[in-house]
Structures are given as structure tokens and as C-alpha cells.
Amino acid sequence: MRGINWTARPHSMELLKKIKQMRSKRKYTIILSPAHGVEVPGKRNCDGSYAEWEWSRQQLRLLATDLERLGFTVTTDNDWADNEIGLTNRVKNMNLVKSPALVFAMHSNATTMDGCGGKAVGSVIYTCKGVTKSDAMATIAYASIAKNLPDRRLLRDRADGDDDFEANFTVLMSKHPSFLLEVGFHDNEEELKLLRDPVWCGYLRKAIVEAIVKIDREV
Ligand SMILES: [Zn+2]
Fold first, then answer.
1. Looking at the DSSP assignment, which residues form a beta bridge with residue 51?
2. Residue ranges per domain, the chain?
3. Quick one: pLDDT band at residue 5, thresholds 50, 70, 90?
4. Radius of gyration, alpha carbons of the chain
């Protein structure tokens, strides 16, 4: 098993003081939900050199640092475990977090089982069924991705009057508003280039951070 080398980004004293001030203004605790686990079959590109669980954890770690710097309290549904702790356990952990909190899950997508030769392109956001705060959050996240990654194809589902797709994913079923972003298709070579591009992923994280700040203010 390949381990992940996390880059430590320590906060200076001055920054810690600023973070404390900002924290008092933040409404939501952010619960990050990293994708799957190292032992989950599939969820990889064709030659296995890209793994969704690992990419998701790397990006969410960086996102957590950015959000903490803006005063958010950030936690996860799996304590950053490399393995899949079980979806029901994740929901249990989410429900232990005091409201108001929101759940953000980040995955990469695929249309093939073996990760080879997929043709699909684009990003999609899922929320739980019914019209909830999650829908308002997803709408803000879509707009932020459109602004920060203007070339990005956004897959929308207008059937119920908003853009997000609705699904009975277990991780969307805690007591908190939740949305899940499928960033792009790791079984499509062109999409995989983006997932592997640190600059592109930086813009993606910027989009998510800006969305969460707006959500915290408006939803
Ligand atoms: Zn996934």
C-alpha cells in the first residue's frame, strides 16, 4: 500500500489570531467526506496509477487547511482513514457533529468499471432527495465552479427546478445539509489530465472555498 505524504502548512501566530477572530463569524462546521478507501475495488484509472480515494484525500486535506485559515471549524466523517470505515459509520460520525454543519463530499467519476476508455466529460453535484438547504448550497457551488473554471462542462438536472442531481447516496443522508461533487471522469484520459494538474485542482479548490464562504453567509 502506498502511503500519502502530507505537506504540513503550519499557521503563524499572527494568522492564528486572525483565524480566531474570523471563527466567531462562521456559522457552519464543515464536515468533509473523503471518497471510498484504499481497499475498495475499482475507483481507479485504467493502469491503476490514479486512485480516487487518494486524490480525494489529498484535495480535501488542502481544502481543510484553506477553510481553517478562513476561520471554519473543519472535521471529517472518517478521521482521514485511508480505508473505507463503512458508510453507516460515516453517517453516525456526521450526526455526532453539532448543527449547523454541512457535509461536503468530493469524488471523481467514471462510466466504466475498469477505468479504461471512458468518454464522459464534466462535473456534477448530487444532493439528497427533496428540496432542502442542500439544493441552495449546490446551486452556489455550481455558480462558483462556473466562475472559477469557465471551460468546465457542468452536468445539470433541471427536472426539479434546480441544477443538482438527486440521489439516495448514504453519505447524503445525515441530519445536515449535504452535497457531493463528482469533479470529473478519471476513466477519460483528458479528464484525468485535469485531475492530475495541481494548478487546475487549485482553481477547483478556490471555487469550493468561495462557495462555502458564500453558503456560510447566505444559506
Ligand atoms: Zn466515488
1. 44
2. 21-218
3. low
4. 17
Does residue 7 have a pLDDT over 90?
A: no
119 Cα–ligand 1 center, Å: 17
Helix (H, G, I), strand (E, B) or coil at 137: helix
pTM of this structure: 0.93
> 117: which DSSP letter?
S
Report DSSP state, residue 83.
Answer: S
Closest residue by Cα to residue 201 from 27, 49, 66, 78: 66
Q: What is the pLDDT of residues 10-48, one digit of tens each?
A: 678 888 888 889 998 999 999 999 999 999 999 999 999
CA of 120 to the centre of ligand 1 (A): 15
Architecture of domain 21-218: 3-Layer(aba) Sandwich (3.40)
**168 confidence band (pLDDT: 50, 70, 90):** confident
- Coil, strand, or helix at residue 99? coil
Expressed in angstroms and rounded, the spacing between residue 84 Cα and the centre of ligand 1 is: 12
Q: How many CB atoms lie within 10 A of CB 185?
A: 26
Euclidean distance between CA atoms 81 and 86, whole angstroms: 11
